[in-house]
Amino acid sequence: MKQFFAKFSRTTWIIIGVIIAGLAVFIFTRSRGGTETIYQTTPLARGNLVASIGATGSVRARQSAVLAWQTSGIVEAVNVDVGAHVLHDDVLASLDKTSLNQSIILAEADLASAKRTLEDLRNSDTARAQALVAVGKAEKAYERAYNWRLELNGKIDITDTYLEFGIPKVRKYKGYASEQTIADADENLALTEAQLNDARRTYERLKNGADSTDIAAAEARVAAAQSTLNLVFISTPFDGTITQANPSVGDQISAGSVAFRVDDLSHLLLDLQVSEVDINSVFVGQNATLTFDAILGKQYAGKIVEVGQSGDTVQGVVSFTVTVELTDADELVKPGMTAAVTVVVEEVNDVVLIPNRAVRLVDGDRVVYKLVVGQPVEVKIKLGSSSDTSSVLVGGDLKEGDLIILNPPSRSGGPFGG
Question: Residues 6 or more apart from 162 whose CB is under 8 A from it?
Fold first, then answer.
């Protein structure tokens, strides 16, 4: 027997001893009626809480326009490349005039004529002077008709000279005028009075310059001719950056074909979809942080600039559009990139915090368990603002330093928020 035990080394005996000791502890524990629960705890303490919501969105420019040709022709000049910064109304490309429709070519002559007419209306005094002369002639004609009508009221012996179709005529009357003569005189008086009123109204319109209606009509003709001429060019509708450029000199293009895309990259935005549960925590001016899969190791800042006031329902889920503007975007950020956005909805400092994993729902109440002399004690609590990990304690029989159980007994009910 002694020789048998001598075969084992000292190390082997140590291993055998450890195994035997472990078995002994296991047997002893089982004999006492089962294992004792080991609670994970953390002391109740004060801290700062940052409540936030997360969403994803794609970057877009504040303004974006796809510019297409409005007529067919051959490209004569291309003035910009991708990446060029352009100003409002810059000409990006133009067509060879000889390749255009005849109506577009003639529009240049129409524009010159319309501009000349407009300039004459604005600067010439001829119309006002003519209107004043017409008033004078109408007043004299009315005066003659009026005096003639007075003469016909009694016995007359007169010779009257009048114009008929521009030819002087002489008429003589003696005795009393006939009813027909008086009726003709009345008609002539009414006509000359109406002509005088018309002349005066025309002069009133022109005495301070050209007729506004005539000017408006001339301006419309100028705008129409200019609009036709503009078909020859592609110009920018706002300040921005060329992000797509398709035409080359000599290309034969057709109406509707895309020429350029321009984006205002000075303001980059993201549209987020925020659930109805969180939307009332979101306000214009709140800060946001953004990260991009395409830009590793860098975080960007943003600010909420618009909060939608009506929700959209998709597959039974109601969400609201929230727009975030990047405040420190650089050349790495491009329209179309996807970003993960975190919006800080609330920040509170120096408050008592409860770990969310410690909170349970029991009969509709939120509770936590504190460890007292090795035993869990249920405490009803009230919570305020929450983040992903913690909530603010606003009510409950707890004090700083109490040991809060993070893994309370399973009989305590489901976890907070579960």
Answer: 144, 148, 168, 169, 171
Give the H/E segment covering residue 147.
helix 126-151
**Can you tell me the distance from the alpha carbon of 345 to that of 282, in angstroms, rounded to the nearest whole number?**
6
Q: Residue 222: which residues within 8 A CB-CB, separation 6 or more?
A: 111, 114, 115, 118
* Range of weakest confidence among 60-74, 282-296, 401-415: 401-415
pTM: 0.54
Per-residue burial over 289-310, b if 16 or more Cβ lie within 10 Å, else e, is bbebeebeeeebebebeebbee
Signed CA dihedral, 231, 237, 239, 244: sign only: negative
Cβ neighbour number for residue 396 with a 10 Å cutoff: 19
pLDDT: which is higher, 331 or 20? 331
For CA atoms 301, 305, 308, 312, the dihedral sign is negative
Per-residue buried b or exposed e for 80-93, using 16+ beta carbons within 10 Å of the residue's own CB: beeebebeeebebb
pLDDT higher at 5 or 184:
184
Amino acid symbol at 377: V
pLDDT one-digit tens code per residue, 135-152: 888 888 888 888 888 878
Q: How far is CA 315 from CA 274, 311, 318, 319, 342, in A?
A: 15, 13, 8, 11, 24
Whose CA is closest to 344, among 311, 388, 312? 388
Report the alpha-carbon distance of residue 189 to residue 183 in Å, rounded.
Answer: 10
Q: Does residue 413 surpass a pLDDT of 90?
A: no
